[in-house]
Design goal:
The termini are far apart. A hairpin with a 6-residue loop joins strand 4 and strand 5. Helices cover 0% and strands 50% of the residues. The strands form 2 sheets. Strands 2, 4, 5, 6, 9, 10 and 11 form a 7-stranded mixed sheet that branches. It has a 4-stranded antiparallel sheet with strand order 1-3-8-7, with no helix packed on it.
Length: 122
Amino acid sequence: QVQLAESGGGLVQAGGSLNLSCANSGRTFSGRALGWFRQAPGKEREFVATINWSGSNTAYADFVKGRFTISRDNAKNTVYLRMNSLKPEDTAVYYCAAAQGFSIATMVYDYWGQGTQVTVSS
């Protein structure tokens, strides 16, 4: 069983940075891709970034390219999201998730964390 828990969210001013972490307290990620998604109030959950098992392949939503970086440490069973140059429109609950395959599609991810709030003030 994969059990995910996000941390690192908070309140930051526009232009600032945050580092999100997502740790798996259950079984190892065991070949799974890991992704970050977000959901703002009144909006659907959307893809942010994903990384394959080895870390050799990543994908990003256009709105975060050049600002966010996803990485993982399989020895620590943890995936990270470094967020730079934050904008007020980045305000959302951020979720990490695990999938059998490398994908940007929300429906492919079968394990989810509870989310961490990120608020960016203008």
